[in-house]
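Teaching note: in complex prediction, the entire set of molecules is handled at once rather than each chain in isolation. The prompt given to students was simply: 'Predict the structure of this complex.' The entities are:
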Amino acid sequence: MNNSREFYLKQITIDKSSVIPIYYQLAKQFSEKIRSGSILPDEALPTESEIAAYFGISRMTVRRAISELAAAGMIYTQRGKGTFVARPKLDKIVFNLENFNEEIRQQGLEPHRKLLEARIVRADQKLARKLGIDLHGRCLYFRVVVTANNEPLVYETKYTVYAKQRPILETELKDPSLSVLAASHSNSLPTNSKKILMVSKTTEEESAVLGVSLHTPVFLIIQTIFDQDQNPIAWGKSIYRGDRYKLIRYDGWYKKE
Amino acid sequence: MNNSREFYLKQITIDKSSVIPIYYQLAKQFSEKIRSGSILPDEALPTESEIAAYFGISRMTVRRAISELAAAGMIYTQRGKGTFVARPKLDKIVFNLENFNEEIRQQGLEPHRKLLEARIVRADQKLARKLGIDLHGRCLYFRVVVTANNEPLVYETKYTVYAKQRPILETELKDPSLSVLAASHSNSLPTNSKKILMVSKTTEEESAVLGVSLHTPVFLIIQTIFDQDQNPIAWGKSIYRGDRYKLIRYDGWYKKE
DNA sequence: CAGTGGTCTAGACCACTAT
DNA sequence: TAGTGGTCTAGACCACTGA
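The expected output is the structure of the full assembly:
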């Protein structure tokens, strides 16, 4: 057995009778060791058998812990060689807007949706092509502005095919995400989506809604929702004020302590 | 045993003697069933025991297959109830720039990096603060433009602390990612990174380098690399032409067939 | 060759769900 | 209470690595 590797194990304890799974206790403590820099990139972890023997647990349980860390990208394994601490991928660029409302709240603001317009329209040629429907087909049309502190931040325009002719629900006006709208009013199931993130400059109308000067740079997200046959059933355009919105992302796993 | 659930199993075959792991064969075929819409959202999969019994394999192997699908977000499990097909998250917004060069190539273009300038500078007050070093401290300074088809696409400016006073390697000029630069020339290990994605308008200098008119909207990515003590050791600014660059993202798991 | 991680088994007990 | 997924065991054989 390798002494330098066994060293870390002495700083790790598990409680077999705990309700917290053993694999989780292990993964957590190893990840802390890595985060704190106790184990450096490309250094080897103890082998699976060593860990299993040291704690008196099954090797499968050890593997489960290691899988969690590997999935998190914190370690990598090499068959026949061992398990090693990974180097954080610092240049990879991933941006995440999963919970837009949350991000605004984290800036200490309370987002508020205001419905500017909601009505049924007949598709013109452009829209008919976007939604893959007949000319003059019925569509739901929404315009929403999201504000925080009475300051407009996002301007959204949405279209959905209106096949069911069902009334528009109160909840849909609260947070009318495109896939929910599509599910409620089209006859198909929304199953796929395409999003395009671009930069743009505001038009006169957009400038007026957002309260910014003409040609202000903005994020533009175009989203199309498709059903299982890849037919478009909803289309939306979101304009995020560039002077108020930025995407921030942290990578790496070493904390200051 | 439930007949409607067992139905799917008859369309799935595994080869126990194959070099391809059983769990992988299973996961692949289930994911195809889900993709094709054979199993709809919130429908139950056969139970783990059923699947194991049907194929004559261990339940642990079945669980491994199911874990893969759950990790991919295609199914979810509920203790005591069963395993169900998930609903794709269509409104989540995730953008990924991991391999910038690849994305350019997929548009049929060959990216080419051109070094505009590379020299050692003394930090002014602004830079010294950004890199957390003394005024007039030595820094490496890079300016790079990435072109495709002789058309400029990205303009990058990078600073790294220059502690080791090591010569600049040829490879670093080829693709000088900020974390590699920081690793080569600072005394610390790059372990964390912060990235900010913004929209901006080109300055006169940027317009000249990118060959666009003044105030063209652009993506602006600011990246800071930190060592394990959270001290900044490198700083970079990347400007992506907004008229030539967009981020596209597909979500969902139903294919057309 | 001995040692590593990768796969797989055939059990076991548990917490939780529905009836 | 019967059935579900969640955890865990104590083995096994394999492909691969390095000496």
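Point out the following to students. Chain A is about 30% helix and 35% strand. The longest helix of chain A spans residues 22-35.
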